[in-house]
Amino acid sequence: MVGSCITSLALAIFYFVPLATILLWIVGSSIVCYGAYWNGQQKEKQHISHHIVRITSAIVITVLFILL
């Protein structure tokens, strides 16, 4: 929940403060990825392919933010 709120804030301020957007996006997406990993650990059910897709998409979006 916290990670998604931070990433939403990053998207909202994209045109006003680009550097803050990148930092907030990295923090928010890291929290989301860690939360998904931790949830899988608690349930003792890991789906590695889901984590790979989630991390890859977060990295791609971060690179796009940097390039814009």
Automatic annotation (TrEMBL):
Segments passing through the bilayer: 12-36, 48-67
Protein name, as recorded: Glucuronide permease
Domain of life assignment: Bacteria
Keyword set, alphabetical order: Membrane, Transmembrane, Transmembrane helix
